[in-house]
Amino acid sequence: MSLFQLEDIDEIYGRYEAILLLIAAGFVVTNALALSLVVEGFVHWRHLFAPAVWLLAMGAAHFLLRHFKPGHDPFLLPIIGLLNGWGLLLIDRLAANFLGRQVVWMVLSTAVMLAIIIVPPDLRRLRDYRYTWLTLGLLLLAATLLFGVNPSGFGAELWLPLPVIGRVFFQPSELLKLLLVVFLASYFDEREPLLRQSKRPFPYLAPLLLMWGFCMMLLVWQRDLGAATLFFIVFLALLYLATGDRRYIGGGLGLLLVASVFAYYLFDVVALRVDAWLNPWPDAENRAFQIVQSLYALAAGGVGGQGIGQGFPDYIPVVHSDFAFAAIAEEWGLVGSLGVVACFALLAYRGMRVAALARRPFHQYLAAGITILFTAQTLLIMGGVTRLLPLTGVTLPFVSYGGSSLLISGVMGGLLIYLSAEDDRGIR
Amino acid sequence: MTELEQKESALVKIHRVTAVLLLSFVLVGATLVYWSVVQAEAILSREDNPRLAEAELRIQRGQILDRNGILLAETVGEPDSLDRVYPLANSGPAVGYYSFRHGTAGIEEGFNDVLRGETDNLAEEVHRQLLHLPQIGQAVYLTLDATLQQKAESLLPASPSALILLAIEDNNAQILALVSHPGYDPNLLDDAFETLTADEQAPLLNRVSQGQYQPGRVLQPFILAAVVDQGAIAMREPIEGDVEAVSLNGQVIECLSPPALPATWSAVLQHNCPAPMMTLGDQLGTSGLDQIFADFGLTQPPELPLNTETPPLAPLADPLLAGIGQDNLLVTPLQVALAWAALATDGRLPTAQLVMAVGNERSSQLSSNAEAEAVTPAISPPTAQLMRLHLAQTDNFLEHTVPALSGPEGQTDAWYLGMAPANAPRYALVIVMEATKDLSAVEGMGRALLAAADQ
After folding, report:
1. Is this prediction's ipTM beyond 0.85?
2. Is residue B283 domain-shared with residue B313, that is, in the same domain?
3. Residue A284 in contact with partner chain B when CB distance is under 8 A
């Protein structure tokens, strides 16, 4: 029996999406009003501006999708929309000076997502020019070695300043994530039969390993170890989907463990994060401050949460970026944090469903790759925040502050919705 | 492999990956439950949790007021920057202090839960937390009289000294004024704390409730009253032996003025002669003296919402010295004041009271000392009345003023025990000034304060 049942009533699809979006809208607007009342004591437009723009963006997305792609998955847009809206609430709550910028990125992200869905992208070009795309991504990442900056003034210099626009920065590793998934999907699409049938598949994997190795090398060089871990997980998962050989998973995880041990001794940041993960309490005031404050936030939230604007998540350094999930747990409690987990779990399920129902192998790998990327990133940061895993410094997709992350997440969300419409309808 | 088989194989792999992804989310969910529910209480109670401080800083502590509703302490400011202010400077020893950094003391400590607004009502607490209502404390009404307190403050010298004035009603001894010098201004505590704790004169120590002194001949009226009550002596009968001076560690202790001879026990009391008291102490023995001191509450710290704990006393060793208060017994001015109040009334040791009402309604009086009836009297009412007849009287005040050797260095402290009005005392006062033999100074202060109280 398949996990993924066919659902074939377009009209109901449209209604599902509308109802879910209305629920999301109710949540976002109610919380914006509550935040305004808590902060100002009355309803102020400053707290309603972002939700209003978000409402327009989601409303437009719903009507355009219903008109142009009626067969698309009805859950993906509401999930992405709710997470986006929740993210805007959090930025307003935790770093209001970044809210305007995040709203612009949200609009751009939604626009790009819609463009990808409505204007049929030529996926063949993505597939056929995989080396070109990935090389482009690597060059951009390499450029950070020379021109990289960190907008906050400290930490790894992973951003490129965008010319002309002013103080706007782009993080090439975010784009590289997508390009790597495209590359892997294209590669496995082409070489899958050989990989499956050959008793010695290594020669067929060599070009893939070479390109992937470049990515990893650059990321490690840049100390972007979170992205490097993410690439490794996506690579292993897609390799398993292509070959069905569990030994790759076992071997890969073994390699990851060995690499982690080396990284522990080579990189201070890794040693710090692993130590803080194993036992944060003795160093709660210094090196483990962030994770300990995160645990306090989870505990303070309890079941029902403190309510928006009424907790103290701002004790966590860079809470609006790396620890948005902890802030949710404190102010919306276990109910809210499990709600976010449920959203991402549903996103994972619907994404893998798109992959399962894809008619073309490239589409299948692409949908699976994007979904695994979203999910792995989510699990890495959720695991880090809850001390299930060491911290890796990745963002919570759609929720955390960060333009590049939001934009690329929009592109990936758009591709998923596009694939859901294309392949699902094709099957029916 | 056929195309169909390939598709099925791909589907199986996707199923497996999906299952792993979903199980990972379940694991994250379980971890969330662990931190947010199972471990929440343990984590939140850690001292380095900044939320504890945030919550503490937002508590609007209740007011502390005197018996007439005059403010002694209140919390002012905006909810996120509250400040505790004490309108009466130097009221520290009486009211105590509240400091975010240094904790609480005095009434602020003794009634901390009331002042913070802590409640046992679960529904009320859940309602407050759900709506994020501020925690507002209740008021505490003290028995202090701000006017008398200020007068006492101004009378007492800045040098180490202590004063306690009681109003006696039924079997309660309500504290009207309580001064310990050197004191401190609780408004300036945060800035001055290090200096205060390093000060050799211990300004943070409440000398009234915790200052331990060798009592010397302060004990005379209590020992004599007990022995008279037992029928062993009569105040008007002449003593056996003489009233010579005695020598102690090279210091001479003698009557304050020579009594007419042959001296009676009444004269011994009024002239503070040591030798007959030593003889009497020898006759009573350490166990007899122990019993007398216990009956007058001099061996146990009285119950008060102030810290009255003192180090345990060594047992009496020499009855001769114990008879003149120069053995191992150490007393606080509070203990002496309560014993003195027993003489001022019907011989029963009264219960000290510093708080007369709790809550935002002044009418919510604390229950009075109902169980006082069960207290064994130190002496009978006639004996108490008789003893008052033999105390020195000046104007409308009955008095017992003595110097007392105190401490290993032979420091002399001046004690004043006074009660007023003389015919039916309602006020009892004890003053001790350290390192002085100036009895007239301490008498002057005592009379001025008793006169103010008895107006």
Report:
1. yes
2. yes
3. yes
Q: Which two tokens stand for residue A263?
A: 């990284």
Chain B, window 94-153: residues with a beta carbon less than 8 angstroms from a chain A beta carbon:
130, 132
A212 or A401, which is more confident: A401
Within this chain, do residues B301 and B426 fall inside the same structural domain, yes or no?
Answer: yes
Judge if B178 and B279 occupy the same domain. Answer: yes
CB-neighbour burial class of residue B228 (10 A; exposed 0-12, middle 13-18, buried 19+): buried
Could you give the count of Cα atoms lying within 13 Å of B117 in the half-sphere of its Cβ? 19
Q: Where does the pLDDT of residue A138 fall: very low under 50, low under 70, confident under 90, or very high at 90 and above?
A: confident
Measured over all CA atoms, what is the biggest interatomic distance in chain A, rounded to whole angstroms? 70
Residues of B whose CB is below 8 A from A371: 21
Please give the Cα distance from A87 to B239 (Å, whole number): 94
How many residues make up chain A in this entry? 428
Residue B174's closest CA among B66, B64, B293?
B66
Q: What is the DSSP string of B129-186?
A: HHTT---BPPPEEES--HHHHHHHHHHS-SSSEEEEEEEEETTEEEEEEEEEES---G
Question: Using the beta-carbon criterion (under 8 Å), do B37 and A302 form an inter-chain contact?
Answer: yes
- Cβ A194 vs Cβ A208: under 8 Å: no
- Tell me how crowded residue A209 is: count the other CB atoms within 10 A of its CB: 12
Same domain, B135 and B158: no
Q: Are residues B97 and B175 in the same domain?
A: no
How many domains, in total, are found in chain B? 2
Q: Are residues B292 and B311 in the same domain?
A: yes
End-to-end CA distance of chain A: 19
Classify each residue of B183-206 as buried b or exposed e, where b means 16 or more C-beta atoms within 10 Å of its C-beta.
bbbbbebeeebeebeeeeeebbbb
Closest residue in B to A236 (Cα–Cα): B17
Mutate: best of A188, A330, A337, partner B, most B CBs <10 A: A337
Query: Are the beta carbons of B416 and B163 closer than 8 angstroms?
Result: no
Residue B94 lies in a domain: yes
Number of H helices and E strands in chain B, helices first, is 17, 16
In whole angstroms, give the CA distance from residue B154 to residue B385: 33
Nearest to A237 among B10, B17, B39 (CB): B17
**The pTM is what?**
0.73
Nearest to B33 among A334, A356, A388 (CB): A334
- Convert the pLDDT of each residue in B368-384 to its tens digit: 444 444 466 889 999 99
Q: Can you point out the beta strands (E) in B220-344? A: 246-248, 251-253
pLDDT confidence bin for A228, thresholds 50/70/90: confident
Looking at the structure, tell me whether residues B108 and B133 fall in a common domain: yes
Least Cα distance to B379 among B268, B275, B235 occurs for: B235
Q: Find the domain containing B105 and state its range.
A: 50-142
Burial class (CB in 10 A: 0-12, 13-18, 19+), B22: middle
> B54 — contact with chain A (CB < 8 Å)?
yes
Quick: pLDDT tens for B202-254. 898 999 999 999 999 999 999 999 999 999 899 999 988 787 888 887 788 88
Check: CB of residue B115 under 8 Å from CB of residue B61. yes
Of the CA atoms within 13 Å of residue B81, those in its CB half-sphere come to: 2
Split at pLDDT 50, 70, 90, the class of B7 is: confident
Cis peptide before B421 (omega within 30 of 0): yes
Query: Would you place residue B282 in the very low, low, confident or very high pLDDT band (cuts 50, 70, 90)?
Result: very high
| C-alpha distances out from residue B93 to A1, A205, A286, B310, B341, Å | 80, 82, 39, 16, 21
Give the model's pLDDT for residue A74. 92
Interface test with A, best of B3, B4, B17, B48 (most A CBs within 10 A): B17
* Interatomic CA distance for residues B278 and B247, integer angstroms: 12
A338:B32 CB<8 A? yes
Give tens-digit pLDDT for B315-324.
Answer: 888 999 999 9
